[in-house]
């Protein structure tokens, strides 16, 4: 049985605080970076592209509108026009961040709210709070990598980020597909917080109704959330690292870091191949 979506999440206030804190650091790092400075973790982007991504129509401006117009979907969303200079981009960013925080703080986390998640139980304001906290966190890291000013991640937020990335970016299933587990068990052990995410490999198959593409590929799903101090069934593979290292590794922001892996080498190779796929 897959874990209930919200049973292990952080308190909603923690996500709100993270959005505000990480967004503030994001702006602080980028505000004076020279135009054209590349973002090494986002190939082809410069710092103004990154500022616009988080503040403009891709992330915070968009999600502020979604929360304000809940539970309606994005079909009537007014896409903003990107300003031509840094000052204009920062103005949109500042308005979007302020509006997003206002909308989220005044909303009930249980309220229905559109989401791209295929699991309809995640079509809530709570899902948006969590997702936006990790958007801000990862893009803060992108900003720091561009500026060469890396600072640590909060370990509890990063541990939640490990779970969220595995659940949503790798493990989410579209309604038109089917996952056939192969019985494998993988422990992702977060050394500094004691959290464990249990994964299983298998085969995902289905036909995308929008494109007609037939999918049949190796895939991974989250099976359970545990604590490393708890007794558990045997694992075929153990993956370990700190919350920060694992979160950044999953998001392909960890540089040369490689997590500890012990166990079945064939399963380790399959997991690496799945997690090497681009996730945005």
Plain-language structure description:
With 280 residues, this protein is an alpha+beta fold. The chain folds into two domains: 12-147, Four Helix Bundle (Hemerythrin (Met), subunit A) (Up-down Bundle), CATH 1.20.120; 155-275, Nonspecific Lipid-transfer Protein, Chain A (2-Layer Sandwich), CATH 3.30.1050. 41% of the residues lie in helices and 16% in strands. The chain is built from eight helices and six strands; from the N terminus they run ααααααβββββαβα. The protein has helices at 12-30, 47-55, 60-68, 86-105, 125-147, 155-170, 243-250, 265-275, and strands at residues 177-181, 186-190, 195-207, 214-227, 237-241, 260-263. Strands 1, 2, 3, 4, 5 and 6 form a six-stranded mixed sheet that branches. The protein is globular. InterPro entries: DinB/YfiT-like (IPR034660), Maleyloyr_isom (IPR017517), MDMPI_C-term_domain (IPR010872), MDMPI_metal-binding (IPR024344).
C-alpha Rg, in Å? 19 Å
Number of strands: 6
Low-pLDDT sequence parts: none
Provide the number of structural domains.
Answer: 2
CATH topology of the largest domain: Four Helix Bundle (Hemerythrin (Met), subunit A)
Distance between the termini: 28 Å
Q: What is the approximate shape?
A: globular
Order of helices and strands: HHHHHHEEEEEHEH
pLDDT averaged over residues: 95
Report the portion of residues in β strands. Answer: 15-25%
CATH class annotation of the largest domain: Mainly Alpha
Strand count, sense and closure of the main sheet? Answer: 6 strands, mixed
Judged by helices, strands and strand pairing, the structural class is: alpha+beta
């Amino acid at each position: 049985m897959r874990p209930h979506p919200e049973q292990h999440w952080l308190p909603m206030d923690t996500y709100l605080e993270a959005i505000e804190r990480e967004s503030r650091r994001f702006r602080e790092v980028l505000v004076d970076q020279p135009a054209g400075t590349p973002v090494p973790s986002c190939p082809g982007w410069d710092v103004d592209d990154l500022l616009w991504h988080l503040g403009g129509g891709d992330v915070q401006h968009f999600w502020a509108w979604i929360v304000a117009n809940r539970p309606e979907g994005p079909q009537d969303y007014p896409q903003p026009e990107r300003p031509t200079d840094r000052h204009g981009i920062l103005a949109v960013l500042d308005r979007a961040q302020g509006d997003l925080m206002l909308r989220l703080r005044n909303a009930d986390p249980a309220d229905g709210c559109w989401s791209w998640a295929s699991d309809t139980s995640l079509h809530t304001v709570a899902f948006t709070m969590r997702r936006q906290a990790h958007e801000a966190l990862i893009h803060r890291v992108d900003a720091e990598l561009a500026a060469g000013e890396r600072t640590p991640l909060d370990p509890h937020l990063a541990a939640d980020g490990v779970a969220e990335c595995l659940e949503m970016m790798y493990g989410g299933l579209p309604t038109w597909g089917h996952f056939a587990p192969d019985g494998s068990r993988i422990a992702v052990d977060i050394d500094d917080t004691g959290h464990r995410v249990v994964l299983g490999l298998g085969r995902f198959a289905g036909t995308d109704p929008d494109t007609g593409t037939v999918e049949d590929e190796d895939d991974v799903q989250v099976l359970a959330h545990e604590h490393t101090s708890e007794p558990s069934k045997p694992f075929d593979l153990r993956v370990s690292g700190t919350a920060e290292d694992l979160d950044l590794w999953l998001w392909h922001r960890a540089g040369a870091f490689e997590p500890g892996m012990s166990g079945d080498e064939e399963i380790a190779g399959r997991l690496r191949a799945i997690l090497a796929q681009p996730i945005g």
